[in-house]
Specification:
The complex is a heterodimer of chains A (90) and B (189). Chain A has a single domain, classed as Barrier-to-autointegration factor, BAF (DNA polymerase, domain 1, Orthogonal Bundle). With 90 residues, chain A is mainly alpha-helical. In chain B, helix 3 crosses helix 9. Chain B is mainly α and 189 residues long. Chain B is rod-shaped. Chain B is built from 10 helices and no strands. Classes of the chains: A mainly alpha (90), B mainly alpha (189).
Chain lengths: 90, 189
Amino acid sequence: MSSTSQKHKEFVAEPMGEKPVMALAGIGEVLGGKLEEKGFDKAYVVLGQFLVLKKDEELFRDWLKDTCGANAKQQRDCYGCLKEWCDAFL
Amino acid sequence: MASLDNKSPQEISDLLDEYGIKHGPVVGTTRNLYVKKLKEAMAKGKKAKPSSDKTYYREEEEEVTYVYKTPTKSETSGDGGPYMRSRREWAEGEYGHDTSYSSYSSSRPEYRGRDLVNEPYMYDTPSTYSSNSYAKPTPMKSEPEKPKAQKSSRLIPLWLQFVFFLALAAFLYLVFSNMETNEPIQGIV
């Protein structure tokens, strides 16, 4: 298992509730701002998008790249974070 | 070419299927992504049709996989037991297997119940790969497919394999006969 960041561990440890989108691993200030502009202002909205894309890695990563310009690492981190959260709580 | 923007979500979904692009529902937030993917696919000019044709191939494919599978299965299972029994176990295991066998199971259910008829049936697929039985009161289309399966299963022609084998044997004999030993080796050679 590749090493995960502190942010990742904190996110997947509990239900996300009303956490902001910047709580997602891989999503910092800049990306978070862009996502909020597009209407994805909470982590659960991004979760919704993740689910609508059927939790598919390629689709989600492409979407993330198109929506906020995330690079490969950020895409990977965000996907991994959401996937693990879903495995635990969904 | 009709603009993708004017298409309904259902049409977008159908197009994605035509190009073989895996996708979820086409909703407000996903539409852009899918339209972009469709444009890329169209630009590449690739057109992957869904798998309706593949069912035809499956019957032949499965025939070929029998060729590869049967040696290992018959060798590992039932070495001590009768040859027939190991074959039957294998066949029944394959039936349990899955979807693509539906064509077989639908055409040969009557053979499963009857031991007597099992016998000719059993030999039909094993005989594709080799050795023993050429008993063929085989019902299906396995006959025309047998030579095909044989041909397609060999990358190197059989005669060439024999030639290599004989060459190797001759080489080894030469090496052996030229070895210096204290005692005569006639007993061995």
